[in-house]
Design brief:
This protein has no helices and nine strands. The protein is mainly beta. The strands form three sheets. Strands 1-2-5-8 form a four-stranded antiparallel β-sheet, with no helix packed on it. It has a three-stranded antiparallel β-sheet with strand order 6-7-9, with no helix packed on it.
Length: 90
Amino acid sequence: MKPNVLIIHPCDNVAVALRPLAAGETALADMGRTFAVVEDVSASHKIALRDIAAEAEIIKYGETVAVSTRAITQGQWVHTHNLEAGRWKR
């Protein structure tokens, strides 16, 4: 089975969906890392690699790209409904 998510940097807490992912399927990253997809994720969107607490940093490219606005569970879609850009955070 080919990987269907891409982990860009080893410090990232999100991966990128390489194709649309459906709730209930298995996400497979390089080196055989797997986890359950808990909700549908569009291609090129972020998916949580592990549980992320509310107000925690979203790390992609090894850098903070946003802050979570609520708790996010592993395998959940990470997008504008549960994050905000840290520099514009209210």
